[in-house]
Amino acid sequence: MGENQIITTIIVFNLFFIAFIFAIIAFVRQYRIKKNKHDMILNHQLKEHQQELLSTQIEIQNQTMQHIGREIHDNIGQKLTLASLYTQQLAYENKAPQINESIEVISTIINQSLSELRELSKSLTDDTINNSSIVKLLQQESDKINDLKKCKVNLTFNKDSIDLNYQTKTVFLRITQEFIQNSIKHSKCNNITIELLETANSLLLNLADDGIGFDKNDITGNGIGLSNMKKRASIIGGTHTLHSDKNGTKLSIKIPLLV
């Protein structure tokens, strides 16, 4: 075999070797593309499944609350109304002033309880979340806590009307309620801030308190609540950011908006 044949053989061998290497690279690249595509499909299916579960859970909760509200109105409410009528009849028939005073006190307590039960029944049976904007829902929640005078809740937003579906409004409201309850119960805070900001392509919910904070690595009692907030945020496609130190706790939920 001549020198030219040897060189030619070496060149051909190298070309085949290079082609083989490129074929392996192309195969690995194609495999990774298919695997990533398959993983994306699985993640999308998993997210859709989680959203369906959340929607079903919310629907079941809504139906349960409406059932409880109707029971309060139709059963307990009717019994309290009857008790109130009996006390009025006793007060009319009784002639002893001291006993009448006691009857009037009992009647007042019954009527107050009846009024509170009617308000509770109404809140459980009406479709408040579906018929209200997220701004109005958060304002109602803020007013409710401020009326208790346990701490001051401040709500700010950059748009009066923010259009969200029922599921997203429910998740935002429940996360806010959970955060407020945790802050009141654990943080010893004086102030809680709620900030709702809509940008061109996202919606941001910022929650903060000025309490004592906590160590995220040493969570005990409120661990389930924090886990629920993170899970709720992820199901509606949101990102969850939590920071806590001795100056307070901050939670941010960001969801993309369809343009």
Structure description:
The structure is a single chain. By secondary structure, the protein is of the alpha+beta class. It has helices at residues 3-93, 97-125, 128-131, 134-148, 166-187, 223-235, and strands at 152-157, 191-198, 202-209, 239-245, 248-256. It has a five-stranded mixed β-sheet with strand order 1-2-3-5-4, covered by helices on one side. Helix 1 runs antiparallel to helix 2 and helix 4 runs parallel beside helix 5. The model has no long low-confidence stretch (mean pLDDT 80).
Q: What level of helicity do the residues show?
A: 55-70%
Can you give the mean pLDDT?
Answer: 80
Q: Strand tally, please?
A: 5
Taken as a percent bin, the fraction of beta residues is: 5-15%
Layout of helices and strands, plus pairs?
Blueprint (H helix, E strand, L loop, with lengths): L2 H91 L3 H29 L2 H4 L2 H15 L3 E6 L8 H22 L3 E8 L3 E8 L13 H13 L3 E7 L2 E9 L3
Parallel strand pairs: 1-2
Antiparallel strand pairs: 2-3, 3-5, 4-5
Helix pairs in contact: 1-2, 4-5, 5-6
What attributes characterize this protein structure?
259 residues; alpha+beta; 6 helices; 67% helix
In a nutshell, what does this entry contain?
The protein is α+β, with helices and mostly antiparallel strands.
